[in-house]
Predict the structure of DUF4174 domain-containing protein.
Amino acid sequence: MKRFGKNLITGMAALVAFALLSTLIAQTPKAMSLEKTLRESRWKKRVLLVAAPNAQQADFQQQQELLASQKAALAERDFLVLPVLYEQLSAADQQFLKREIGVQPPAFAMVLIGKDGGVKEKSSRPMKPENLFGTVDKMPMRRQEMRKQ
């Protein structure tokens, strides 16, 4: 009888653990599509797409390193830095990237998208933060933001 009770408790614990895990998995948000991410960022954030075949690509790593020390400057300018790895994109996101943004995998691309949703600058090489910020700081919307600060 004791053995039956112990097995019942062990089985119930496993069932509860499975139910909790299933609930957590069901609640884990799925990654938004690239198009939806850009649409939801419109008028809120400037988006910097850093696109490459994979995270090991040299230009991708260099761009990430250049931006790593600039978190405050990126935040001040309302940037969302969005790493885009082609190997992880859905077919729909790949088509959107080609058609709407003009990025052609597998090449590295750095794309600055303004708060209005328009492509402001593209580069096939990593961009120094001071050049990126210089471009943004000349924009009318950014100048207005600076005056308000």
In short: Residues 10-29 have pLDDT under 50 and may be disordered. The chain has two domains: 1-30, 34-148. Helices lie at 2-27, 34-41, 58-68, 71-76, 91-101, 129-137, 140-148. The chain is about 55% helix and 15% strand.
